[in-house]
Amino acid sequence: MSLLQFVILISAVVFILFGLDLYRRKKMNIMHFFVFFVGGAMIIAFSLNQSLLDQFGRFFGIARGADVLVYISLILLFYFYIDVLNKHTKDKFQLTKLISQQAIIAWYLQNKDQIAHRNNTHEKDDFVFNIRVYNEEKAVGKVIDEIIDAWFRKIVLVNDGSGDSTLEVLQEKKKQYPLALIVVLDHTINRWGGAANQTGYNFIKKYGDELKIKWFVGFDSDGQMNVKDMDAFIHRIHADQKLGLDLENKKPDLYLGSRFLEGSRVDNMPAFRKIILWIAKLVTRIFYGANISDPHNWYRVISLPTLRKFIITADGMHYANEVNEQIKRHHMKYAEIPVHIRYTEYSLKKWQKNSNSLRLAAEMIYKKLFFK
Predict the structure, then answer these.
(1) How many CB atoms lie within 10 A of CB 81?
(2) How far is CA 75 from the centre of its chain?
(3) Fewest CB atoms less than 10 Å from the CB: which of 84, 166, 197, 320?
(4) Which residue ranges form the domains of the chain, and what is each CATH number?
(5) What does the alpha-carbon distance between residue 15 and residue 41 come to, in Å, rounded to a whole number?
(6) Distance (Å, rounded) from C-alpha 338 to C-alpha 348?
(7) What is the distance between the alpha carbons of residues 339 and 262, in angstroms, rounded to a whole number?
């Protein structure tokens, strides 16, 4: 027996021992059985009798049996990579769930008296803005000012583990506007945009009745959205409410902002961004069956009963696809509203990188085809 044969033989035995360990821990499935036990037995047989390897190859129409092993190894390597990635993704989901619940419970236990006796005095008190915030010390203060100046007084801000002075800015704004309900949910560590939205969704879903709100508003913290567009959303809501009770089932459940409708306005959008968004629209149609003109526009107004149907699990930007998928799955009725989006040098450098779109596409394909 050559040294190489001996090494292969020992490797096969270790392979089988791994399989036995999986079996003892009750982690064994049919694929593991074939890989560790059947595969290990075949490797032992091939190492002891090399002619069997060539016969094995000829069975598949390949002259050299070693080539078959290479192909099989590549397939198994991909399988185990996806298997490990799935487990890692599930662990991230659990960590995000823990961080999210901690932020919600911590705020509510300390501040529930702020919402206990709050009454609506204006129609705009029916709306709550949900804003995810990460290292936005330069922009988020002005965003809050614009919302308050427009007479909206309920804001939920999710500080996603910012490393700058963002949290201090949020606390200062809370002191500056004592008549407003400014909720600051603080993630102890950064979990990314989808996780922050998950926390905001879950907080408003759970305490929406206590907040005395009817509508959820998705809004950004980098200054690219225009709060004046809320006039168009409210006007459309009024128009739909005038349809009468006999048409109740035809009224929209949510209103989606769009950069691509007549009356919309987009400042300084890069040409390549338009191409990416057009591709996103096509992919959303193919993968999720949702015919939305601007599927990755986060400017959305959602009724509280409808919001409670959404379940967000993604940590990253894939949350937008989760929302679009559930719109289709739950047969939600929606209307699209033209909005004004302001691309700035700041927002383009911070969030609007083209690499984010590529990352989103890869995450979408993985979640749709391989994640279980």
Answers:
(1) 11
(2) 29
(3) 84
(4) 3-91 (no CATH), 122-369 (3.90.550.10)
(5) 9
(6) 21
(7) 10
Distance in angstroms (rounded) separating the CA atoms of residues 21 and 17: 6
d(CA 215, CA 205): 11
3-state class (DSSP) for residue 335? strand
Characterize 136-163 residue by residue with b for buried, 16 or more Cβ atoms within 10 angstroms of its Cβ, and e for exposed.
bbebbbebbebbbeeebbbbbbbbbbbe
The torsion defined by the Cα of 349, 229, 115 and 168, in degrees rounded to 10, comes to: 20
| 353 pLDDT tier (thresholds 50, 70, 90) | low
Q: In whole angstroms, what is the distance from residue 113 CA to residue 116 CA?
A: 5
CB neighbour list of residue 49: distance below 8 Å, 6 or more residues apart: none
CA distance 185 to 167: 10
Pairing of strands 215-219, 300-303: antiparallel
Q: Would you list the DSSP string of 122-184?
A: SGGGGEEEEEEESS-TTTHHHHHHHHHHTT--EEEEEEES-SSSHHHHHHHHHHH-TTSEEEE
Query: Does residue 1 have a pLDDT over 80?
Result: no
Tokens of 261: 């409708």
Angle of helix 39-48 versus helix 65-111 axis, rounded to 10: 150
Do the beta carbons of residue 371 and residue 89 sit within 8 Å? yes
Which two structure tokens, joined as six digits, stand for 208?
């929406």
Residue 290 in this model has a pLDDT that exceeds 90: no
Cα–Cα distance, 261 to 257 (Å, whole number)? 9
pLDDT tens digits, residue range 300-337?
999 999 999 999 888 987 888 889 889 999 999 999 99
- Cα–Cα distance, 108 to 114 (Å, whole number): 9
Residue type, 249: N
Bridge partner residues of 216 (DSSP):
128, 302
